[in-house]
C-alpha cells in the first residue's frame, strides 16, 4: 500500500510550488496537496483553524499515518499538528518553516498595486531572482487585489510572527528532516540551526545558492534528500 505524503504550502504559496515534487514522487506515494484555507472567514486563531483543517483532511482521507512536508507557513502548521497528533505523523520535513523567527515584516498596509515593489519583495524570497517569474508576480498581485484576501494575508502573517513553537519542539519525537536554503533571507540559517538543536531526532541539510523555497529553487537536490529520508 502506498504511503501518504501531504505537502503544505506557505502564505503566498500554492499547489504549483510543489510541481517538481509531485512529478518525482507521484508513482510511489499518495501525494496530497491541500489548498490551505487562509482566506476563509472564521473566529479561530488562524493557526488553530489550519491545524483543524489539516486534521479534517487526514481524517476524511482515512489516512492512519502521514508524512508531512511543510514550507514556511505550511511548516508551522505541520509542527503544531505533529506535536498534537504524534501518532498520526510518520515523519516530518520542514523547509523554511516559520515558528521561530521570520525576517519578513507584513504591516497593516501592503503596496499591493505597486508592481515593482511586489516584484522586489517576491524576488527577496529566492536566491535567484529569475525564479520570481512574471506569472508568479501576477498571481500574487491578483490575490492582493482582493480586499478580503489581502486582510487575511496580513492577519495570518501577524499571527504566525507572534506564535512561537520553541516549547513544542523538544516534545516532537518522530524523525525530522530540515532542508534549508543556505541563502534564505526570510528564515535565515540560524533559524534552521535552532530547529536542529531543539528537535530530538532531526537532520539538517543546507542547499547552497538557495533561498526560502528549496523545492522550487533546487528541486533535484530537494527531491533526492526527501527520497532518501522517506523511502
TrEMBL record:
This is Pimeloyl-ACP methyl ester carboxylesterase. PANTHER family: HYDROLASE, PUTATIVE (AFU_ORTHOLOGUE AFUA_2G14860)-RELATED, MONOACYLGLYCEROL LIPASE. Residues 5-224 form the AB hydrolase-1 domain. InterPro entries: AB_hydrolase_1, AB_hydrolase_fold, AB_hydrolase_sf. Pfam families: Abhydrolase_6. GO terms for cellular component: membrane.
Amino acid at each position: 500500500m502506498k504511503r501518504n505524503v501531504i505537502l503544505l504550502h506557505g502564505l503566498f504559496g500554492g499547489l504549483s510550488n510543489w510541481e517538481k515534487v509531485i512529478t518525482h514522487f507521484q508513482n510511489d506515494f499518495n501525494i496530497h496537496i491541500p489548498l490551505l484555507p487562509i482566506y476563509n472567514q472564521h473566529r479561530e486563531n488562524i493557526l488553530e483553524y489550519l491545524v483543524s483543517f489539516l486534521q479534517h483532511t487526514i481524517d476524511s482521507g482515512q489516512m492512519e499515518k502521514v508524512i508531512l512536508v511543510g514550507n514556511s507557513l505550511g511548516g508551522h502548521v505541520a509542527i503544531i499538528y505533529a506535536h498534537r497528533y504524534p501518532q498520526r505523523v510518520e515523519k516530518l520535513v520542514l523547509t523554511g518553516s516559520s515558528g521561530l523567527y521570520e525576517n519578513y515584516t507584513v504591516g497593516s498596509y501592503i503596496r499591493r498595486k505597486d508592481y515593482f515593489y511586489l516584484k522586489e519583495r517576491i524576488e527577496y524570497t529566492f536566491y535567484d531572482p529569475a525564479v520570481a517569474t512574471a506569472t508568479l508576480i501576477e498571481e500574487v498581485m491578483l490575490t492582493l487585489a482582493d480586499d478580503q484576501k489581502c486582510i487575511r494575508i496580513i492577519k495570518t502573517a501577524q499571527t504566525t510572527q507572534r506564535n512561537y513553537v520553541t516549547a513544542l519542539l523538544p516534545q516532537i519525537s518522530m524523525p525530522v528532516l530540515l532542508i534549508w536554503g543556505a541563502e534564505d533571507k526570510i528564515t535565515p540559517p540560524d533559524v534552521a540551526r535552532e530547529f536542529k538543536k531543539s528537535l530530538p531526532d532531526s537532520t539538517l541539510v543546507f542547499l547552497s545558492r538557495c533561498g526560502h523555497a528549496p523545492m522550487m529553487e533546487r528541486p533535484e537536490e530537494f527531491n533526492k534528500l526527501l527520497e532518501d529520508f522517506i523511502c
